Amino acid sequence: MNLLSLLLSLFLTVHPTSAQLxxxxxxxxxxxxxxxxxxxxxxxxxxxxxxxSAVLRLYFHDCFVNGCDASVMIDSTNNNKAxxxxxxxxxxSVDGFDAIVKAKQALDAVPxxxxxxxxxxxxxxxxRDVVNIVGGPWYDVELGRLDGLSSTAPSVDGMLPQPTxxxxxxxxxxxKNGLSxxxxxxxxxxxxxxxxxxxxxxxxxxxxxxxxxxxxxxxPQLKDLCPRDVDPRNEIFMDPTTPGKFDNVYYQNLQQGRGxxxxxxxxxxxxxSKPTVNLxxxxxxxxxxxxxNSMIKLGRVGVKTGRLGNIxxxxxxxx
Length: 319
What we know:
Strand order of the largest sheet: 1-4
Distance between the termini: 39 Å
Order of helices and strands: HHHHHHEHHEHHEHHHHE
Number of strands: 4
Largest sheet: 2 strands, antiparallel
Number of helices: 14
Strand content: under 5%
């Protein structure tokens, strides 16, 4: 074996996902994959605007548990309680799942694309598209993932960041996936769009111990929107200022004490993350660039290749 072959072999061993993923992965098998997914997504968003934040959240919940392998899509059976039925995933909107199913159906309607594109890659493309559709940056996605062969509720335990986490806990969650403090701050910016259930913040706004980090005028607004006896199904905007637009106002809100979750506001109160919050609050272009870089890094987490995965015929069931 010559030196070049040896180095290539070592690279493939140490960085199998980097070797697997590439832009235009489907150029030979389904060249219009991204346009087909975007068209299907556009139709779904016309039916329900919730689809935008639902798809984005689905991506995070998938990648943080055993990697970006569409395992969160799998339905439970009598013999297996799947990821989507773990308590931390019960709040995932049905519109997110439906958007991916609809995109899969649109691809399968094209003969040369039928069963050629993984559900994991569909989620990745759709996530980029929803960010862009509501004003966020466009970026080229890396493709070539296979769908995972396992999905269990217990595998979700302790893997997802919680609304009450401080920066230490947040950093730990992201570090498990090879993501840095900066990645964590950038990806938290996804909270610039979407909704959260009132039940996630009841203790923060109605608890016996007052949270001094909440803006004095924001707190009564939250209490009105989420009273103690609120219907558990009630939701509230994550970004109270520009909830339907992907922008850097999320960080400006944190400067004003208007972060919805304790984990959001912690980014401003903690001296390790505060300088970055201030930087991105003042420069949306820098935030967009950081967000894109971190999303691409997240998309490389736990990629399945070879015998570790396949391309599902139905995104919600194993082959």
